[in-house]
Design a protein that fits this description.
By secondary structure, this protein is mainly α. The protein has helices at 2-14, 20-45, 51-70, 77-80, 82-101, 111-133, 144-160. The chain has seven helices and no strands. The longest helix is centred in the first third of the chain and has 26 residues, at 20-45.
Length: 168
Amino acid sequence: MSFLTLVIYSLLMVFYVLNPILHLKYLLILIALFFTFLSLGLFIRNTDLGKLQFILIFTFLISPSFYALYSFLSSMSFLDYSNIVVGGMIFQIGTGVYALIGGFKKEYLTPLGKNFLRLNYALFLFLAVVTIFDIRFFMNGFVYIPTGAVVSLLTILLLFFKPQYLKR
């Protein structure tokens, strides 16, 4: 039964009835839009920034979704801009976490909590820049993976142990 399924699937792909890469492209577009709207909502709701800073961060937050949506016009362009989309999504996740914890609000965190949050956001920005510009030196397994693990651990600690570093 499994072999027959593979044969049918292969025939459907040969005759261009199914195109798994095309479906993957639509899934990645939906994921990029989801992270854009999630990070925008968290950023807009939890910010006390000036107008210029707000517009600058807002522009950076929506730019990865434009690159993803550009792939509707040219399906091969998504492969050219995939580093920008993935790096932008890392930036969006980092900004969403930073906004969710209260990094954009003034006098909301204790100094220790603010320092840990800034470190977490700086590591998110480091991962985003390395991914966007495709810096091979930092993308090896000895730098990129441990940095991602530290970011994940810090994010979990900051999200779940929130009351200890909030001002009362």
